[in-house]
Design brief:
Layout lengths: L18 E6 L7 H14 L4 E5 L7 H4 L10 H5 L5 H4 L1 E2 L6 E4 L12 H14 L2 E5 L6 H8 L3 E6 L3 H13 L7 E7 L1 H5 L6 H8 L3 E6 L2 H9 L10 H13 L17 H5 L7
Parallel strand pairs: 1-5, 1-6, 2-4, 2-5, 6-7, 7-8
Antiparallel strand pairs: 3-4
Helix pairs in contact: 1-11, 5-6
């Protein structure tokens, strides 16, 4: 009689984890929070399940940009310190069931966040959401370190200013070596570029040398939408909204060519080159 061979039961494959993407810059005031809100809203509109995490402890703004400030009852540190459950702290967006927010604490310090707890929380979020977008605080101190600790990818937001490019270059050098961060150039004014009074896309990325995810023009509609708590990415008539939607589609894997704004003769590149040591 042949021996009976017992087969091991088939093991269920682990469910796919979402991507945790930190949106950073180094320099404050370049539009990280606005970018986080608009890219998140655009991804949600594409049908992806998205959570936005405000990691800027002490300077909470992401809830205002989304128009959700009145709905925030608990925050990031409440979850980390087990004063509230994750479900209690997550705020569902009023326009999309695919979009949620985890707000920052407004009256605490960045040093109150324990890095290991932040990493564990990002893992929990990646199990529930396809995209976890982390709004990184300005600077390269503890807030920055906590924001990138639980991420697996980075988007660098940079305005066409020498100081912003320099700070972005510094931040890229602090990211993990196996990451290949992508670049969004924000608040570009083509007329100033043409007149040689603003850095061009080529000038900026000649130093940073990052895959270009998108370019956002500097237009009044962004400020108006931000003050209203209505992401411009949801405005079908807005060219800037279309730019955010293109960024989201590309981030989600769509084969969309990166925009190219080539304005020769600006005369800035040589000036920029003298300010940087360069990265290999």
């Amino acid at each position: 009689m042949e021996a009976r061979v017992e087969r091991e039961p088939a093991r269920a494959s682990a469910p796919p984890r979402g991507r945790a993407i930190v949106i950073t810059s180094g320099k404050g005031g370049v539009g990280k929070t606005t970018t986080t809100a608009n890219v998140g809203a655009a991804l949600a509109a594409l049908g992806h399940k998205v959570v936005l995490v405000d990691a800027d402890v002490g300077l909470r703004n992401l809830d205002v940009v989304l128009g959700l400030e009145s709905r925030v009852k608990f925050h990031l540190l409440d979850v980390l310190e087990e004063k509230a459950t994750l479900d209690e702290a997550l705020v569902r967006d009023k326009r999309s069931e695919n979009l949620s927010l985890l707000a920052a604490a407004q009256t605490r310090e960045k040093e109150d966040v324990v890095t290991a707890q932040m990493v564990a929380l990002m893992e929990r979020l990646r199990e529930r959401f396809e995209y976890v977008l982390i709004d990184c605080p300005a600077g390269i101190e503890m807030g920055f370190k906590n924001a990138i600790a639980g991420a697996d990818h980075a988007i660098v937001v940079c305005t066409p200013e020498v100081s912003a490019v320099r700070d972005a270059d510094r931040v890229v050098g602090l990211l993990p070596n196996d990451w290949r961060p992508q670049l969004i150039i924000n608040r570009l004014r083509p007329l100033l570029v043409k007149k040689g009074k603003m850095l061009s896309v080529d000038d900026v990325n000649g130093i940073l040398r990052l895959p270009l995810l998108g370019v956002i023009a500097d237009e009044p509609g962004v400020i108006v939408a931000t003050n209203r708590g209505e992401p411009l990415a949801l405005d079908a008539a807005s060219e800037t909204g279309a730019a955010y939607r293109a960024i989201a589609a590309k981030l989600a894997g769509a084969d969309i060519a990166a925009p190219s704004v080539r304005v020769p003769g600006t005369g800035f590149f040589s000036k920029l080159g003298s300010l940087f040591g360069g990265r290999a």
